[in-house]
Structure formats: C-alpha cells, structure tokens
Amino acid sequence: MTSKTSSSRKGGAGRSATTDPSDAIPLRYGDDPYVWACWLYYEDGMTQGEIADAMGVSRATVNSYLADAREKGIVNISLEPARLASLTIAQELKRHFGLSDCLVVPSDDNARPLIDRLGVAGAMALQKLVKSGDTLAVSWGRTVMSVGEHAEAQALQDMTVVQATGGTTAAFSYTPELCAASIARAIGARCVGITAPAIVKSGALRQMLLDEPLLQEQFATLSQANRILFGISSLRPNSTIHTSGFFDTVSLQDYLAAGAVGVVAGRFIDERGRPVSGPLDDRTVGISLDVLRRIGTRIAVAGGFDKVPALLAALRGGYVNVLITDAATGHGILRADGVTGLDARMSQRPKLAQTPSSYRTHVKKFLNNPNEVVEEMLDGVVRAHRDYIEPINGSHRALVAKSGPRPGKVGLVIGGGTGHEPCFLGYVGKGLADAVAVGNIFSSPPPDPIVQCAVAASGGEGVLFVYGNYAGDVMNFEMAAEIAEEKGIKVRTVLTTDDIASSPIEDREGRRGVAGNFFIFKIAGAACDQGLSLDACEAVTRKANLRTYTVGVALEPCAMPQTRRHNFEIGPDDMEIGMGIHGEPGVTRERIKPADDITDAIMDNIFKEMKATSGDRVAVLINSFGATPLMELYILYRRVAQRLAAKNIEIEANWIGHYCTSLDMVGASISILHLDQELTGLLHHPCETAFLRIN
After folding, report:
1. Taking a C-beta distance cutoff of 8 angstroms, is the pair 250, 157 a contact?
2. How does residue 678 score in pLDDT terms, banded at 50, 70 and 90?
3. Three-state helix/strand/coil letters over 360-393
4. What value does the mean pLDDT take over residues 291-306?
5. Angstrom distances, CA of residue 362 to CA of 81, 357, 372
6. For a surface tag, which of 39, 186, 289, 630 has the fewest beta carbons within 10 Å of its beta carbon?
7. Does residue 113 register a pLDDT over 90?
8. For 393-432, how does the pLDDT look when each residue is reduced to its tens digit (9 = 90+)?
C-alpha cells in the first residue's frame, strides 16, 4: 500500500509540505495522517525519509507529525491500544485475504451504535474510493443505509448510482430503492433504479421482465458498474434476510440445509463462498455473484460478531476486496480462518516458549470410545435420574419428565447440544420442562426427537419451544414445529437471547442464548405448570428473556472428547470476553485482570442495559463453564452482591455453580434476571428436577 502511494506521488509537487496527505491515506489509518506516520515509524520501522516518500510529504512534515502525535497523546512509546488493535487487525485482514484495502473501526466505545460507526467508516471509504465518472452499484440493508446517511457531498461529476437488485414495497427504511437513492443524493450522482421486484413468482416471469427494453437498459447500466457497495447478511433469525419480507414465499430452511451461512446481494453462499442453489435462483432479479466478482472495487460494509461466518464466506469467495468492519468482528474472522499469533502482536508481548518438560498436547479425560461419549453419558443420565426422566420410545435423544405432561396443560420442550450439562436435560421434571431433545456435542438435535418431545409433552393446549438462538437449532426446531402442527399440535417458539456481548443492543434479537436460559426455562416451566394459556406462557417467557442479561469470560478453552486438544488457544496472561457456550472464542481478548475488575466490567455492561432503579429486585446466576471451582465463583458473587447493594438493588434469589457449561472450559458467566412481581412469583413456583428443586 505504501509503495503504491509513494510511486503515485513522485515526479511532481508530491513532496511539497503543503500536500494534503489525506488524499492518499490507506483506509486502515482512517483519515488521520498522525496515525499513518506513527504506524510507519513505530510499527513498520521506516525512517523519516522513507515515510516522507510513502506519504508524499516532506521529511520536515513527517517530523512535525511525529512530534505532534506525542504531544496529542496518540503515541506514548506505543500507539494507543484501541487504535493499535484496529490497525493490526486491518493490516492482517488485508494481508491474509489479499484485499486492496481494509478499514477496521475500534471495538465498541459505547458512544454510538455499531451500525452508525460502520456507516461513518463506509462513508469515509466512499469519499476516498469513488471518482468522477464512476458507476457505483448499491445493494441494500441497514448498514448500507447508514453509509448513505453519513456520506457527505463531494465535488464529483458524471457519477451514476444503480440498484444492485430489484425493489420491494416493504415498509422498512433500508429497501434497495431507498439505499440507492440515499447514496446517490449524498454523492450528487444520477440514480438508476431496477423497476422490478427483487423476487418474482417464477423463472418465466423473471425472463419476461428481463426482456423488457426498460429493464434491459437498467441492467446495461448495472453491467457498467466499476464499483459496488454492499452489506453482508447472516442467516440468524433476526437478520435482514429474515426481516426484509423478500423471502416470505420460500422456506429458508432449504438454504440452511444446503449449508448456506450468509447472503451477498440477495444470493446465498456456503462457508467457502460457493453459491448455494435453491428455489430462488431463477426468481431473483438482480446482480449475480459472477458479475459482482468481476467488478473492480467491491466494498463490503458489515460488522457484528454474529456475522463472522457470513463475512468469512464472502472473503473466501472473493466477493470482497475492500472491507469495512469492526475490530471484534475482524479479529473473529481471522481466528475462524486459522490465523494465529495476532493476539501477541496486538498486546505487544512476546510469546512464551514452552519447554518439552512442561508442554502437553492432549487433555486427560475419563473416556472409553470418544465416538460413543454422548450415548454413554446419556445412558448414565437415564440410569442416575430415572425418578425424573425416561426415554421416549426407547431413545435417549428424546427424554420426557415422568411427572410433567398432563392433560389441559401447555407443554414445554427445551433442547440443544450436549457438553453443557446439567443444561438442558437437568431441567426436565415437575414444574419445569416436560421434555428435552438432545443433540451431539455443541450440535442441535435433529427434527425427529424434537417432534417426539412435542408429542409427549402435548396436553391438548399447545406446546412451547424454548431454545438458544443458533442457526442449527432454529432450523431443526422450526422443521419440527411444522411437523408437529401437521399432527394437530399448536406450537409457539421463544428463542433465548441473553448474551449481551454477542451483538449490540440495536441487534438484540440476534444475540446468542447462553447460561441465562436457566432463568428463562424456569419462568416458562412455572407458567406452563400454573395452567396459563399458550399465549400467556409465550408472553411471560419473552418478558423473562428480554429482562435477562449475561456476559461470560473464559480463562482457558475447552477440549473436545474426540481430539482431547484445546479448540483454540488463550495466552498465559489473557482472557476471552463474551464467551458463548459452544467452545468458540470470545468476542474480544484482553489482558487478565483481578476478579473484582472482571466482575465490574461485566456489571457495568449489564447496568447499561438493565436500567434498574433503587429498590428493584433481581435474581443472580454465577455459572461455571465446567472447570472453574466454587471458590472462585463465590469470589465473583461477592463482588456482584456489592455492586447491586451499592445501587440498592435487592437479590431475591441466587444460584452459584454448574448450570450451563462448555465441557471443561475454565471460565464463568454472570447472569442477572431483572424481576417484576409476575416474574418473582414464577421464579419461586415449585419445581423438582434432577438439578433444580424449589419447594
């Protein structure tokens, strides 16, 4: 990047001290020449003369930048940590994926929503990348609209903005028409729409539309695009794809079952970036993936940890050569693609070499055949807890409470993968869940045992499904719900989304369900046991979910039984913030801190969302991820109690121990349920299961 900049600036007035270096600043440095100069000097080890050539300014100007940076506090021996991390991640993304450029915004500063910060960054990228005479194709989505809202007018001529897909009459504010118009208005460009729906009824109708002279002219303009701006959608239940209304006529399960992980400009791709065939292929009016890949400048603006699989797929598929994202997401993409050593570079600490005498490659476990670990565990569970649960039709993958289901009662079905014990099977019994569907380690149960659970739990008043917000669980439970409906069983679904670290607050519905589902199961089970209607059970369960807040921290990763190796590495002085329960890395990595500091950081984030006032009451869960002992959990609880007492918030009830684990991970999560009168009564409602008894 710097060598190209240098050559383009030589041979004229490029060395003048009056030159504005922002005209040539690579995207990863933002609009800040001070950061650019400091990075080249302190990180890349270039001399002031080499920096002057790279930046196209005089050596005196470079000297001035470096001096001013020290005075401004940008540099104090090293770059300020948030900027350093963002620059390191941007540089590595650019190198690893062969990008033309990359801009990474720092991790959440809690000042603005992530979409706004990405919009500002995307607008800055447009200002640098778009030139007079360009034709810019524009896709649609919330982030793309944010770019338009933050873009500023430029002195450009003969610009054209063209929709990348057909339109929609949907009521949301980020339709293809509105996104293209917003970008065009911001940069003073002519706007060309695609005057056809994005999705039509049939392939024959699509071909008829494309044969129309007006559409042919519009697609001719689209084919001339030399730049494209687009967002990337995940397939999480709250993603743009699910909420846009574009795909209401087609079950997205067809694409999920075929391995789709994301959507680019209305086209589905798998984890390697390959197109995923499905029923919409010949009904979509818009740019194809092949045409998109041939466009010279392909700017993707997307962020949020839930989008890591989709973004990684788009990068692998070559659809992106300019990426705008946030630090946590960028870090997650690199780790998901096997990039190692990045954390040591960001923390500026050398890796510690391990000697053969202290180094082990495998974790010790009590196992027989690793491939039969789930079946052997379930056999032990059924033998140990025969007073509470029994197999349905002889299958250990579908278990029913012996004293749960009864006529006239709404049935509660929960479920998920193994490796989280005592969740989920430990919460089946009188007053709580009526049945549980069990999957493999960290994997969703298939539809068939879920259907068996629905039938067994049904008492004629409908069945409530409650489970974590993960793509595999959503797909399989939705398929099971359809089958159960065909059998005459009315089904309602509530997804648990208590992990506040996994997505920003404006994307609340996209969050993961983690240990806080303990509270949500308890409330749902009590509502069902009290004989409430299906509508009422669903409503109060949703309320419990909205009032539950969880953050997890890991100190050491877990190890799968089949490999007996850690599934990722955490440095000896590091910790992972925002852990899920499937053994995946956290959202961010930080230097390990004292227990009180860790707890304070978690509680500060929870307080920002919970909005509790003096006199309110809460329930507290301090949960071990598997290998953290009670001694340490009580230390965490002590600080949680102190923080709540300081706000005059009373702890109504608490649970401390193993409630939703991640195999043998060393770590813990803190969950807070913000109670009201209704939730308090349901929390204290009696229940009796293998792992939870309330009299």
Report:
1. no
2. very high
3. CCCCCCCCCCHHHHHHHHHHHHHHHCCCCEEEEC
4. 92
5. 34, 14, 19
6. 630
7. no
8. 999 999 999 998 999 999 999 999 999 999 999 999 999 9
- Candidates 661, 663, 669; CA nearest to 632 is 669
Tokens of 155: 């002195």
> Which candidate, 553, 571, 79, places its Cα nearest to that of 344?
571
Burial call 247-277: b when 16+ CB within 10 Å, e when fewer: beeebbeebbeeebbbbbbbbbbbbebebbe
Q: For residues 210 and 294, what is the distance between their CA atoms, to the nearest angstrom?
A: 21
Pairing of strands 463-468, 411-418: parallel
Q: Write out the catalytic residue numbers.
A: 420, 582
At 432, the amino acid letter reads L
Please, what is the average pLDDT of the chain?
Answer: 87
- CA angle (617, 621, 623) in 5-degree steps: 170
Whole-number Å distance between alpha carbons of 279 and 266: 13
Whether pLDDT at 279 is above 50: yes
Query: In the chain, what percentage of residues exceed pLDDT 70?
Result: 88
Q: Indicate if the pLDDT at residue 656 is higher than 60.
A: yes
Sign of CA dihedral 160, 166, 168, 174: negative
User: How sure is the predictor about 84, in pLDDT bands with cuts at 50, 70 and 90?
Assistant: low
Beta strand ranges found along 154-259 (DSSP E):
160-163, 190-192, 227-230, 232-234
Distance (Å, rounded) from C-alpha 389 to C-alpha 398?
10
Alpha-carbon torsion 629, 515, 551, 301, what sign? Answer: positive
Q: How far, in Å, CA of 140 to CA of 178, rounded?
A: 8
Across 496-505, average pLDDT: 91
In sequence order, what E strands does 39-149 have? 75-76, 78-79, 101-105, 135-138
**Residue 22: predicted pLDDT:** 45
Which two three-digit tokens encode residue 138?
Answer: 């524009």
pLDDT tens across 216-252, in order? 999 999 999 999 999 999 887 666 665 565 555 566 7
Question: Which residues lie below 8 Å from residue 129, measured CB to CB, with a gap of 6+?
Answer: 101, 227, 297, 299, 322
Contacts by 213-219, CB closer than 8 A, 24 or more apart: 218/162, 218/163, 218/192, 218/193, 218/194, 219/194
Q: How far apart are CA 433 and CA 425, in angstroms?
A: 9
Q: Is residue 467 pLDDT above 90, yes or no?
A: yes
Q: State how far the Cα of 185 lies from the Cα of 389, in Å rounded to an integer.
A: 63
Angle between helices 471-486 and 447-457 (to 10 degrees): 50
Apex CA 26: angle with CA 310 and CA 155, to 5°?
Answer: 100
Distance CA 194, CA 217 (A): 10
Give the integer Cα–Cα distance in Å for 154 and 183: 12
Tokens of 343: 């954390």
> Which two tokens mark 327?
């630090």
Q: Alpha-carbon distance 655 to 681, whole Å?
A: 17
pLDDT of residue 111: 61
Kindly state the average pLDDT of the residues 538-546: 98
**Average pLDDT of span 279-283:** 87
In whole angstroms, how far apart are CA 190 and each of 130, 142, 453? 14, 22, 57
Pull the structure tokens for residue 194: 């695609």
Give the HSE-up count for residue 356: Cα atoms under 13 Å, Cβ half-sphere: 0
